[in-house]
From TrEMBL:
GO biological process entries: cell wall organization; peptidoglycan biosynthetic process; regulation of cell shape
Protein name: BioF2-like acetyltransferase domain-containing protein
Any matching Pfam family: Acetyltransf_6
Highest taxon of source: Bacteria
Family listed: Belongs to the FemABX family.
Keyword rRNA-binding attached: no
Keyword Disulfide bond: no
Domain named BioF2-like acetyltransferase: residues: 174-304
UniProt GO molecular function: aminoacyltransferase activity
Keyword annotations: Acyltransferase, Cell shape, Cell wall biogenesis/degradation, Peptidoglycan synthesis, Transferase
Length: 370
């Protein structure tokens, strides 16, 4: 079943920007027509991942036309002392290429600040996205926001999909291209899968985690629902690379907007000698180019894994870009929510860092007994 989408358009006159709250169940319909979509801005994701928080999506209108929006997650502080409002990789624009896109972004942030930090006495935390040719973090600082927590490995890798096959291959690093040539000669088959095939990917994913002794901190449990999102444009895509009929590598991708995102990858022992990852990613790029309005394909980060860094650097090659996440940016116009909100966010980050440090220590190879 498909859901009808609200009409959006881009700003034509520079009248005042208006913030309007919308029902959470209606938000994804607005988001589907924006130029940037990610899982952290999806209500279908947030209601499963952050069920303890209150989702408060807002849209921004000019002359009655929606020019952007943001999913804001809110946690109230005890004793009615304000709260914390967080938006990750928002607000988002209806048209990133409009001449006044930077102005619209600034006005959207100003409206969020007025609503959540000033009127409602909250600490507002905004995480700017690592988008190509964007200066969102600088704008946040100019508006009085202060830097918050930084990701441990902030680099993100972007592939420009708007090239023909020859242009794509010429852009890859030479060694990466050689591995792709090898993969194409090994009998691999590329497949765009259906939501009903998710259990096959889940089994491949679990096997990979066990083999590599990885600890999964993601919200994989949200994947089945998002592969079946009622709005077709927002449905996650599932891909496989098969060898002799068996899935040896798989990927889950967000395809909406102008920036697609590689969310999950999985492989078995046969994938590496077959260079199945090279084959699969090349064909995902071609599929995005031919079937969506994607300009950039975000491969995600490297998580301090040198092999992953080398793979993604080679894929980005000459025509892509490596961008870094800026720290989160925070602002509060009242002292109590500033102090309590920052303390709560710091405590949460300390717990996360401690857990991951302990898990990393536990997963280290054990020394052989003497």
């Amino acid at each position: 079943m498909s859901t009808a989408l609200p009409e959006l358009s881009t700003p034509t006159r520079r009248s005042a920007l208006q913030l309007r709250h919308v029902a959470p169940q209606d938000w994804d319909g607005y988001l589907a027509r924006m130029d940037f979509v990610c899982q952290e801005q999806l209500y279908a994701y947030a209601r499963l991942r952050y069920s303890s928080l209150t989702a408060e999506p807002v849209v921004f209108e000019r002359d009655g036309e929606v020019v952007g929006g943001s999913l804001v997650l809110v946690r109230r502080l005890p004793l009615n002392l304000g709260g914390i409002a967080v938006t990750k990789w928002g607000p988002v624009l209806a048209d990133e290429t409009a001449p006044d896109a930077a102005l619209v972004y600034r006005q959207m942030v100003e409206a969020l600040k007025a609503e959540f930090a000033e009127r409602r006495n909250m600490l507002l935390s905004v995480m700017a996205r690592p988008a190509v040719n964007q200066d969102e973090f600088d704008q946040l600082l100019a508006l009085g926001f202060r830097p918050g927590a930084q990701l441990r490995a902030p680099e993100r890798y972007f592939v420009d999909v708007r090239h023909d096959d020859a242009g794509l291959r010429a852009g890859f690093a030479q060694k990466w291209r050689n591995r792709l040539n090898k993969a194409e000669a090994s009998g691999l088959v590329f497949e765009r899968a259906t939501a009903e095939q998710e259990p096959e990917f889940a089994a491949l994913f679990r096997t990979m985690l066990e083999r590599k002794q990885y600890v999964d901190h993601s919200a994989y449990e949200t994947i089945p629902a998002l592969l079946n999102h009622p709005i077709p444009a927002l449905r996650y895509e599932l891909f496989f690379a098969r060898h002799e009929g068996k899935a040896v590598a798989g990927a889950v991708v967000v395809k909406a907007g102008r920036t697609a995102t590689y969310l999950y990858g999985a492989s078995d022992d046969a994938a590496l000698p077959l260079s199945a990852g090279h084959f699969m990613q090349y064909n995902i790029i071609r599929w995005l180019r031919d079937n969506t309005r994607t300009k950039w394909y975000n491969l995600g980060g490297h998580d301090d894994n040198e092999g992953l860094r080398t793979f993604k650097t080679g894929l980005v090659g000459k025509t892509g870009a490596v961008m870094a996440f800026a720290p989160s940016a925070q602002i509060a116009t009242h002292i109590v929510p500033r102090v309590l909100g920052q303390a709560a966010l710091m405590a949460r980050q300390t717990v996360i860092n401690a857990k991951r440090g302990l898990e990393g220590w536990r997963s280290r190879p054990k020394k052989a007994a003497r």
